[in-house]
Amino acid sequence: MKFRILALSVFLFLGYSTKATEIIWGQTGHRTVGKIASKHLTNKTKRKIRKLLKGQSLAFVSTFADEIKSDRKYREFYTWHFINMPMDSNYEDSKKNPKGDLVTGIKKCLEVIKDKKSSKKDKAFYLKMLVHLVGDLHQPLHIGLEEDRGGNRFNVKWFGQKTNLHSVWDTKMIEGFNMSYIELADNAEELSKKQVKAIQEGTVVNWVDETHELTKKIYKSAKKDENLRYRYSYDYLTTARKQLQKAGIRLAKVLNDAFK
Description:
By secondary structure, the protein is mostly helical. The protein has helices spanning 2-24, 27-38, 43-52, 58-61, 64-67, 102-114, 120-137, 165-176, 181-186, 193-200, 204-219, 230-258; strands at residues 155-158, 161-164, 227-228. The protein has one domain: P1 Nuclease (Orthogonal Bundle), CATH 1.10.575.10. The protein has 12 helices and 3 strands. A hairpin with a 2-residue loop joins strand 1 and strand 2. Keywords: Disulfide bond, Endonuclease, Glycoprotein, Hydrolase, Metal-binding, Nuclease.
């Protein structure tokens, strides 16, 4: 009897844990970016952000742009999360989405944040959006092909379970590493001031084109329906972590410039 009760308890716990994991998919990476960015902010920027967000951290608000997707009144922001362009193109030469994309979304966020006439409510909203979008910019499959929706239709398996290449890079590898966003941020590579400055150089468009170079490699990193396992994580998890660090460092630069 005791064994059956214990078995039932374990079953219920595992069932709950699975649902909880599904809910938090995609959040660890964005929170890592927010946490890393907070380490590179000036004191002036920290004060202004704290006031706008009413004490909430960048890590906390980093998932806001995904959370509002289910609300139809925010549908206009959907295309801000990605850019679709051919492998042999760059952002300037590629066909632009008339509904907007990552670059135009980030530009709009900064316009509102810098505008002295903008309300505090609007500034806070677009600040939350900005934190998320800079993170998306550094995920290679967010700058992927239109025909497979940025790898969402590039079907693969992850340890035997059906998924797609986009999800592997968005969540599977990071969640599979089993570290919290705080642990990931605290264990990011130690960089000198010179290295940080080098990462922060360039424009948003430059960063898009840089990420797109990585996108090309990622599309070649797997075959359709391939079962990706430990070897894939071994080969690419470090790259994913470096992208999170770059995103955080560059987000800090964008915010420091916006709140001068």
